[in-house]
From TrEMBL:
Keywords: Membrane, Transmembrane, Transmembrane helix
Protein name: AtpZ/AtpI family protein
Organism the protein comes from: Limnohabitans lacus
TM region positions: 7-28, 40-62
Length: 76
């Protein structure tokens, strides 16, 4: 694999994961769930879950985007 392709893979994974995690954080904030509250109540556990799911979903979307880009490059 070329260095450029590896860099694109790493950067897109990072952007997807962080973007998804931030989106999960803000969804939790809109629901009134504080990930940083003292102790582990149901709201903070739900917020942690949203951040984790958002990060995983963003990573999945980044990989899906890369696969689509590869298909388009193969067709051309």
């Amino acid at each position: 694999m070329s260095a450029r392709k590896l860099l694109l893979e790493g950067l897109s994974d990072a952007v997807g994961f962080v973007g998804g995690a931030v989106a999960g954080y803000w969804i939790g904030q809109l629901l009134g769930w504080n990930i940083f509250s003292a102790g582990y109540n149901n709201a903070s556990i739900g917020a942690i879950l949203l951040v984790g799911l958002g990060g995983g979903g963003g990573l999945h979307l980044a990989r899906f985007w890369r696969a689509k880009q590869q298909q388009n490059n193969d067709k051309a």
